[in-house]
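ligand=biotin
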Amino acid sequence: MKRVFLSETASTNDYIRRYLGGGENVVVCARRQTEGRGTKGRSFSSEDGGVYLSALTFYENLPAERAFTIMAHAAVAVCKTVGSFGLCPEIKWCNDVLVGGKKIAGILIENALSGGFVRSSIVGIGLNVLNPLTGLEEIAVGMKDLLSRPPAAETVRDLLIENYIAPSEFSDYLGYVRFLGEQVLVREGERSYPAVAREILPDGRLLIEERGERRVLSAAEISFGAWRRS
Ligand code: BTN
């Protein structure tokens, strides 16, 4: 995989688009982003000291129904990386990686689909290492807050790339999911309700049980209530 290193860019997910015509897999890393983007149109704090990278991958034969494998693979790469520094990461469905109940990494995926297949994907990963998280302390955490001797961002970045290049299985993803069987708060559009999370299906959908009734969710947000000890 070709590697590109930048000091600064608006968003690596945007910068990497210039390689879409090339057909070669590439990863673009930046020391900081001035307009880091998160999911649902949110911004992503991207100051110096964090890992901000995007990987562009071309696929020959990936049916759109299997697009979740891209997300699962990215989450596993992040968890393996975080775990290798002695931390205990967990996946919050479907694209956040938490340590101790706070978000240490976020993943933003932008796929190009045609004819029922994923042709290419841009996987953007932001991982908090030494970067300041001013104002986000309640919900976000960095390696600097968790380790007495936190690694340099470059060390974490290089390991993350290695883990991203290595293959992974859906079972690896499930190995980092710790909320199944627990009560979660589900937010579906305007509606918020408690439910028990039962299963994550191989296509990425979440099976929940709400007042005894089982339902499968494809797009929703979950959070863990105050009852959960992290
Ligand atoms: C989220 O948690 O909402 C997803 C955050 C994704 C952030 C990464 S940082 C690298 C890449 N470039 C961006 O602008 N966003 C992603």
